[in-house]
Amino acid sequence: MFGEGVTNDAVSIILFNTVIKTFTTPSDAGTFQQGVNILFDFCWLGIASVLVGIAYAVAASLLIKYFHSLTRDAVVECAMILLHGYLAYVTAEILELSGIIALLTAGVVMA
């Protein structure tokens, strides 16, 4: 149930961002070209957001694995995990991707 809800939310967010981007940008493209642009932007936002989340999750995992000084205190370890999730969100938003998808992916991969 949780996975289905999250997937629906993720698809809705990406589709909303894609449509807003398409219709706020002036274009002389025809209907077919706009449809192709929406499909391309949808795929790009989804894939790029997931990659940002995976990158930060792998970075957090490697830091915690190889730097044992970060795992001596549970507070520091939790802070590192929260920081990397937040950085994934902020990075995706700065790159005009979906921060929610990046955060969700980072959380799933770090789990």
What can you tell me about this protein's structure?
There is one protein chain. The chain has about 110 residues and is an all-alpha fold. It has one domain. It has four helices and no strands. The mean pLDDT is about 85.
Core attributes:
single chain, 111 residues, mainly alpha, elongated
User: How many H/I helical runs?
Assistant: 4
Overall pLDDT, averaged?
Answer: 83
Strand count, sense and barrel status of the largest sheet are:
none
Shape: elongated
List the helices and strands and how they pair.
Elements: H1 2-24, H2 31-66, H3 74-94, H4 99-110
Write a brief caption for the model.
The chain has one domain. The chain is 83% helix and 0% strand. The chain contains four helices and no strands.
